[in-house]
Amino acid sequence: MAGGCSIVWFRRDLRVEDNPALAAAVRAGKVIAVFIWAPEEEGHYYPGRVSRWWLKQSLSLLDSSLKNLGTSLITKRSSDSVSSLLDVIKSTGATQIFFNHLYDPLSLVRDHRAKEVLTENGIAVRSFNADLLYEPWEVLDDNGRPFITFTSFWDRCLSMPYDPEPPQLPPKRIISGDFSRCPSDTLSFENDSERGSNALLARAWSPGWSNANKALAAFINGPLLDYSRNRRKADSATTSFLSPHLHFGEVSVRKVFHLVRTKQILWANEGNTAGEESVNLFLKSIGLREYSRYMSFNHPYSHERPLLGHLKFFPWVIDEGYFKAWRQGRTGYPLVDAGMRELWATGWLHDRIRVVVSSFFVKVLQLPWRWGMKYFWDTLLDADLESDALGWQYISGTLPDSREFDRIDNPQIEGYTFDPNGEYVRRWLPELARLPTEWIHQPWDAPEYVLQAAGIELGSNYPLPIVKIDAAKARLRDALTQMWQHEAASRAVLENGMEEGLGDSSDDAPIAFPQDMQMEMEQETVRNHNHTSITVRHYEDQMVPSLTASLLRGGDREEEEEEEEELNSDHRNLANDGRAEVPDDVMDREPVRESVHRELAQFNVQIALRNAEDSAAESSNGTAASRRERDGVVVPVWSPASSSFSEQFVGEENSYLQRHPQSHQMVNWRELSQTG
């Protein structure tokens, strides 16, 4: 290893501050910084337009920071990250690679393959925690099993015997390795048709790690104090605007946690109870972001399959017209339509509006929740697969602690709750701008003379409700009855000794995704408006990024206890309570087409811990606990299900890591050197 250099493989950790992989490489000697753009590896989770715009700006600012420290960022375009890493190693003479962990299922498979292939080629590989307060395998119940509810998970995090590691300072300088024979590739993140729209984003957003620190400071010294009172307001900037920065790793969650906790201690000493409450609520949103990765790590199929098996039998409505009306903001419900038009125009939604539109999608229109999740993935600036999956699973009632699925939130009531003066609706639905506030969230009830004075002709320049709420409630009750009947029939088959087992139904037609999504789906019950089973062909969709939102809150039952409302609202607020306002005139969106390469089958991940010997060069760098956090000496071990934990959720019989083409590489993970 002497005389060689170290590669730092940047991914979603685009910062020089509190970056454990970069810090370890700097301590080891000469550094080669590399970013590999291989979106084809993401399958149908190819980044959307606004997400790619953010990535482009963030990489540019990271390169500037690295140059100020003494090196540059090498960029590579590839369809295979591991092959590109081997090429960079060959051209630079690097002897070791450092990178930070990711927790989505696609990255888990790729990273384990990378560790095995690189190790076989004589390269020392070390990975680190740079994205979480605690690694998923550190937070277990008293029986050593993962938690299955957020409250129990977060309580354990807050009562851990050791605090999260404090954030590290950026390196003072970097000694650059020789990359003269490793030129950068020019990366293209946008086409000509997207540039005009993307240019407008810069008026509202400032990507980059230094700007993330400014956004964090602005929030802590401003809106945080009144966060508990103002966080529900959809028509003003009351949240942290940190979710895109957190997704791309421009600011570390450890820094956010420690700075916010410091503020809480200060307010506690001053007797500021309102400030303390605000911090507790904001930290809960950070906790939900942690939980999304925790769930993705322990149940990596959760972005594709419901965690509660009976939801497999729910008869989703397959209706292209419904899906198009929802995307275009033409449902006839002003708050829903305003949210969807803002999303199309800006790539952004307040977390409360995300809950409104996603709940409407699943419970009123009864469209498959994965369609909505995928559309959010393709359009939001803060697209985040783990948070999206948790949010949509919660809305759909497919988590053990989800809101009850038979509850429909009335968009009219939610409108007067989140947009009491109608300013948000008027901003995004100019056709309703002259409607009095009394009728702004229920134009169908307005007297004819009021509509005429406002220039509104329902069914012409603004649609009538696509589905009436009472009819949606009745249809949902019927669908739930049908779901339980199918589940009971399947259970009877299992109890009678048939091999299919609970959750299988060979007579069910697979739900087809819109054509552009090209997603191969598992078998599910499908119905059309006549409640008959059909085989559905692919049809068109448009794409956009993530639901890192808050949990479902009440509409029809607004008189429920405030404590329950607080819990359920905040449960889905996955640290996405912070995004900047977008200009009114950012009104252009271009659809992004993609192909889906495969279905991610269901699987279960078992966690085990293994301590490895640290290298001599690192032996003097603090305590064992510090080395565990900083130097990556605790490594997850992947293996097929061997405990009863898999029985907590239906449908985990076949491990994804076994069925995936590279799954054999996971089984022998214990044999790999982790510390180099």
TrEMBL record:
Residues annotated as site: Electron transfer via tryptophanyl radical: 316, 369, 392
One Gene Ontology molecular-function label: deoxyribodipyrimidine photo-lyase activity
Acidic residues biased stretches: 557-567
Pfam families: Cryptochrome_C, DNA_photolyase, FAD_binding_7
Annotated Polar residues bias: 663-676
Cofactor note text: Binds 1 FAD per subunit.
Gene3D superfamilies: 1.25.40.80, DNA Cyclobutane Dipyrimidine Photolyase, subunit A, domain 3, HUPs
Keyword ATP-binding: yes
Compositionally biased residues, Basic and acidic residues: 568-586
GO cellular component: cytoplasm; nuclear body
Region (Disordered): 551-586, 613-632, 656-676
Signal sequence segment: none
Binding site for FAD: 227, 239-243, 282, 382-384
Cofactor(s) needed by this chain: (6R)-5,10-methylene-5,6,7,8-tetrahydrofolate; FAD
UniProt keywords, alphabetically: ATP-binding, Chromophore, FAD, Flavoprotein, Nucleotide-binding, Photoreceptor protein, Receptor, Sensory transduction
Residue span(s) of domain Photolyase/cryptochrome alpha/beta: 4-133
Family according to the record: Belongs to the DNA photolyase class-1 family.
PANTHER family associated with the record: CRYPTOCHROME, DEOXYRIBODIPYRIMIDINE PHOTO-LYASE
This protein's name: Blue light photoreceptor
Organism field: Centaurea solstitialis (yellow star-thistle)
